[in-house]
Request: fold
Amino acid sequence: MWAVIFFCVCSLWDLHMKKLPIWLFGVGTIGVVLSYIFCNDRTLLDIVGGTGIGGMCLMISKVTNEALGYGDSLLICLMGSYKGFFTTLWIVTAAFG
Reply:
């Protein structure tokens, strides 16, 4: 549930300010670490795979001069580390499809 609230806050912030502050990513990272400690339902390979999808999005951001923003790509990294590879792949595919 915290993730839904976090991503809603990030979306609203991005719509209003057109930029996400770095401390917001820190809050998200703390949430991911806490969820992994207390709700260990993902494997390390799943987390790395989900984060890798965000890493690929970061490369796309770099190559396309931020057609896909860096902040969006970092949020995909966070989502990938929280939800895992297949769920993140599905969400990103549905979002861009």
Summary: Residues 41 and 59 are 28 Å apart (CA to CA).
